[in-house]
Design brief:
about 550 residues, Immunoglobulin-like, single chain, about 50% strand, flat
Length: about 550
């Protein structure tokens, strides 16, 4: 049925698979009839994931919210014959990108942004990238109803004549300095492969100009970005006219690097969304103690310097860069490394594809840069190390990100103090660890009910009772058609369990938003054995 009108939808392509199977493994595909009805027959008892798509409608799993959906239970006492499947019409954003003369800007990178609820936080994130065609036109289709915006990044057409390729083509242009190719990060493409150079000859002929990134409707700063509220099925237009401006230039003086090899320097622009940056700007090395960066618009950037001299330290600094700016950076204090071995409790098999992570007090994360079997210790031990950590006294939290059903049980250390999974270093000595990992066996299986009846589509939320280590310990699920849910891989401890009818629309990560529901929340203590047959009332 059309989620907007309630009318039946014919010719909907529907796929079904067992819920425990990978997403790309449907075993039957059918089309809905003229009256919207559909039928999957001869199914074994169990739970199934059903997805639907139709021209003008984005693919959606049944009652999908974020990365959760409702599985349809089939079997004795389960009603799987009266499924009402709402399908939301797609929205569309389209537009044209032109230059200051009204000519099409071919290959302009148009980024789609969306404001949505994710993990209980209302946030901005990238939702796709399109490249403008020969007429400067772009199009984003198959969008669900919501709030969207777009931004445009491009380079003037004449910039292609200031790339190193001109040397190879024998056009008689002479470059001065070392040119390094640029790239774009955070989902923004660089269709023309622009490279920054130091070329006085070319600047006499062609303007040293760039296009600043423009956010809808006409802002250079994403904080001034406008939003389009797209209802299901709506088409919205957003055109852009770009105007060039003089390229900004930044000279970075590196104190303490005399005689050493040049470090790597990148310039990261501020983009919407927590932790997102880009693009990486072109750089030209001037000398071992200085860096010249050009070919970007003025604004606020994060300057990151790494590989300083014989060290591998990283220095980050936010700065406002105008048409011609200077930045002086001091050599960083020597950092530290943490090395160790991870072994499994109880003599279990290897931790294949393990992924370990450290987090410091400021929230910065550091992945293990290498790990593998330690031949000296036998097949049940793996080695790892963390490099490029900040120097001086630090406090780190060690976690096992993958596999998700394992956690740190115990840490032994030399050169550091250990409290639970917290590592405290003084920065003056090498740190070595022996980490014992254990499989997490705690789980909760239950049923969400409302007025005595099973409730489908509720957000199931499990949170630590003391509110600590929230990011790592919180668990979520969506109740299936028979109201059942399962929360696996829970570390032992005391928790609060909630079932929220409209939880997908709440900023439940904020205490004041969740506080009214905690009064009737269910308190549970999870051990190493699963908790079964838990019943929770939907609020």
């Amino acid at each position: 049925m059309d989620a907007k009108t309630g009318g039946p939808l014919p010719d909907v392509e529907m796929s079904i698979q067992e819920s425990a199977q990978p997403v790309n493994a449907p075993f039957e595909i059918i089309q809905s009839a003229a009256d919207g009805s559909f039928r999957f027959a001869n199914l074994a008892e169990g739970k199934y994931t059903v997805r639907a798509a139709r021209q003008g409608y984005a693919q959606q799993a049944f009652l999908q919210h974020e990365n959760f959906w409702t599985g349809i239970a089939v079997g004795a006492g389960k009603d799987s014959l009266h499924v009402r499947y709402p399908l939301s019409p797609s929205a569309t954003i389209t537009g044209q990108v032109t230059d200051e003369n009204g000519e099409a800007v071919r290959g302009a990178a148009v980024t789609l942004w969306t404001e949505q609820m994710e993990n209980g936080i209302r946030s901005i994130s990238g939702a796709g990238v399109a490249s403008a065609d020969d007429e400067g036109r772009y199009r984003f289709e198959h969008l669900l109803a919501g709030k969207y915006s777009v931004s445009v990044s491009a380079v003037p057409w004449y910039s292609r004549y200031t790339t190193p390729q001109q040397i190879e083509q024998g056009e008689g242009v002479r470059w001065r300095g070392q040119a390094l190719q640029s790239s774009f990060t955070a989902g923004i493409s660089n269709p023309n492969g622009i490279t920054a150079i130091n070329c006085e000859e070319t600047r006499r002929v062609l303007p040293d100009a760039v296009y600043p990134t423009i956010y809808y409707p006409n802002s250079r700063d994403w904080h001034g970005m406008g939003w389009m509220s797209l209802p299901a099925g709506q088409v919205e237009g957003a055109d852009f006219q770009l105007s060039p401006e003089p390229s900004a230039h930044l000279h970075i003086q590196l104190n303490g690097n005399e005689g050493g090899p040049p470090p790597s320097v990148i310039l990261m622009a501020d983009l919407p969304g927590e932790g997102e940056n880009g693009p990486m700007t072109p750089t030209t090395v001037v000398s071992s103690s200085g860096i010249e960066i050009s070919g970007f618009a003025s604004g606020r950037y994060q300057v990151t310097v790494s590989g300083w001299g014989d060290r591998s330290q990283v220095v980050e600094q936010d700065t406002d860069i105008s048409a011609s700016s200077q930045l002086r950076l001091e050599e960083p204090a020597r950092g530290q490394s943490i090395r160790g071995e991870i072994q499994l409790a109880g003599g279990e098999q290897n931790l294949e594809n393990a992924y370990l992570q450290l987090k410091d007090a400021n929230g910065h994360t550091y992945p293990a840069v290498s790990y593998g079997n330690s031949a000296e210790q036998g097949p049940l031990v793996m080695s790892f190390r963390f490099d490029n950590l900040p120097g001086g006294p630090q406090v780190f939290e060690l976690t096992i990100i993958q596999p998700p059903d394992f956690a740190v049980k115990n840490i032994e250390a030399k050169g550091a103090k250990i409290t639970g999974t917290t590592i405290t270093t003084d920065g003056s000595q090498e740190v070595s660890l022996i980490v014992t990992a254990a499989r997490i066996s705690g789980a909760i299986e239950g049923t969400a009910v409302k007025n005595g009846k099973a409730f489908a589509g509720a957000m199931i939320l499990l949170m630590p009772e003391n509110g600590k280590d929230w990011e790592r310990l919180v668990k979520r699920d969506q109740s299936d058609s028979d109201g059942t849910f399962r929360l696996p891989n829970i570390l032992p401890g005391k928790y609060v369990l909630l079932a929220l009818e409209k939880g997908w629309e709440m900023e439940w990560s904020k205490p004041k938003v969740l506080q009214p529901f905690l009064v009737n929340a269910q308190k549970l203590e999870v051990g190493e054995q699963p908790l079964n047959s838990v019943t929770v009332e939907v609020q």
